[in-house]
Amino acid sequence: MIRHRRLPAGAAGTAVLVAVLAAASAATAATSAISGKVTPDHGAAGTPLSITIGFTLDPEPAGQSMTLSTSELKLPSNGVLNSRLFPTCNAATINARRGRFTDCPRGSQVGRGSFSADVPAADVFGVPGRVTIFNGGGTNITVHIYATNPVLISEAFDAQLVRTSGRYGYSMNIRVPDSMQEISDGWFAELRRFTATVGATAVVRGRRRGYVEAKRCPKSGRAPIAATFGFLRESAPTSAVGWISCRP
Prior knowledge:
By secondary structure, the protein is mainly beta.
């Protein structure tokens, strides 16, 4: 019969600490950075804006696995989102057409961008891809991802964008679909670079309105942005902070 010996309190605490540190060291780290800009960077309240957000993800040490599974983007409070003024197109509509936008109403596309990713198991690196962004309706932003190497990906998903209070104005919560994490059996995609610009306009009751419109720029001339990234398997989460410059 196996006998279990109870450790003294101090020894037990030490053992727990060692186990925690061992688990932490087993998880690979990642470094991240986030940046952004608005165009125009100066204007009265209600001025239509385009906002660009970009981020990078790099493994530490190099070569370690890091497949993005979740992220939270915290966006500035000196802009307001007018989703109710624009037509909508959600992920289900796009995916029902196998990634085509034929059923999306005109004016529902509000942004676009690009990315690059690695698929180490397929020996493919720096894969380019396209990002198309739609007004998803309600609190949703719809994101369509397109890439052709090493397999075809043409899929949309909905991300929730909600108003917050305090330091930031909005929080965008993203859960990456499983099919964009493991793109084929044993092939895990690793996002490295991402940038997207959101900004569309429409004439509403004779007035040009923006999907994003300006509020007052902070006196400092800098509006804070931030992001947190979570990864599949052994990679530890990482976070980044940055600023968007504007002119008061």
